[in-house]
Structures are given as structure tokens and as C-alpha cells.
Input
Amino acid sequence: MGPATTGILRAGRHPGTPPRTATRCDSGKTDAPATTRISTILPVTASRSGRKYECRPITTANLVDLDRFSSQHGKFRWCSCMRWRMTSSKYRSSTKESRVATLEDLVRQGQPVGVLAYEDSHPVGWCSIAPRDAYGALQRSRALRRIDDEAVWSVVCFFVDRLRRGQRLTLALLRAAVEYAHAQGARVVEGYPVRPGGLYTYMGSPATFKAAGFSDVTPPGAARLVMRHLGQP
Output
């Protein structure tokens, strides 16, 4: 990977929030939980398996990497993480390529869309994170209604290259996404993990969210889990 740079998070800063430092993505099959730290640079951290990863939020500076990741992972490209961003009717009327273009346009507009994990210079993992109100289908979901009036950011999808699965990269991506959201001014980050055996596993597991410091805030009687991570007030 090329030289580490500063100001990665600031480059993707949501309007009106102060600049912060960049995120390091630690991953791997270790006895201790994977960690995400803040640094003024983006050092690469080795896992026990010998692989090295780095996490960066998507901005216009690395939009080409998002396209490369998408082109190399057909299942990701098919949806382009639009299933929750578009309303159901818009999603049904869209095409694969229009969904790809829509995600790219959001990045060009300066909207937060997610975080990529890199091994060397190669993007190998994705976590979708943005303010909840950016997700049209989520806003209308009966199963995942808002539980209060907090201005939350939502984590709705993970995608990890098949050769990097089983190395806790999902956990590292989640922690990097949380750091990114809090750096943009988000006080609350929300996730909707699926219990083991669920049909839709791209939203992560309860164990992953718990390991990243999330708490279960599911309303009594609700069919879907809701978990939250609180930043500093």
C-alpha cells in the first residue's frame, strides 16, 4: 500500500462537524478482540494470520477503489448497497448499473456511504454506514421502526471477500465504521444484526456487534434486534 496519509476522516466529514483524525483497522483471529484506534496516520496492523488490513471511509479520493471492489464482487455489485438506501419501489425499478451509478453519485455529492478495508492496496471488505435518514427503505420499514427521536447513524450491511472471511474482518470494519461516524458528529450508531440461522446475514451477527461495544436496545415484542453504540456526549 502507498504511504499512509493524514486527514482521511476529515476528507469525508459530514457538513458542519469538526475535523478529526484517521482510523486504523486492526483485524485477525486473536484471543483478544480486534481493535480500532485513532491515529494521525493510517498504520497497517498485522493479524495473527499474517494478513494486514487498513480501513478508510469512502470519499472521492478513493472512489476508484469502491468501483474496483464492486467489479470484483458480483453479489455486492448487484445490489451496490441500495436495498436499504432506495425505497422498495425505486429498488424494484432500478437496474444493476443504475444502482452502481447511484452509489457513486452519493460519494461525489460528499454523502457518507461506508468504509472499505484494504489488504495492501486491494479493497477486500465493506461496511455500509450513514445517517439513518439516508436509507429510504429503512425509514419505511415496519420491522425496524425508529425507537426514539435520536439522530442515529445506521450500519446496514457488510461484505467481505470470501478469502478473508473467518478472520474477524467484519468486527474490524464495524469498529472502524463506528469511529468514522462518531468523528462526523454522530452520538448514536445503530445496527440491526440477524440472529444465527437468519435468511439475511449481510447485516452482521449479534455477537459481532456486542464485541464492538454495542448494547441491545430492542423494544419489547419487536421481531428484529436493534443494537446501539453511544459516543461521547
Notes: The two ends are 35 Å apart (CA to CA).
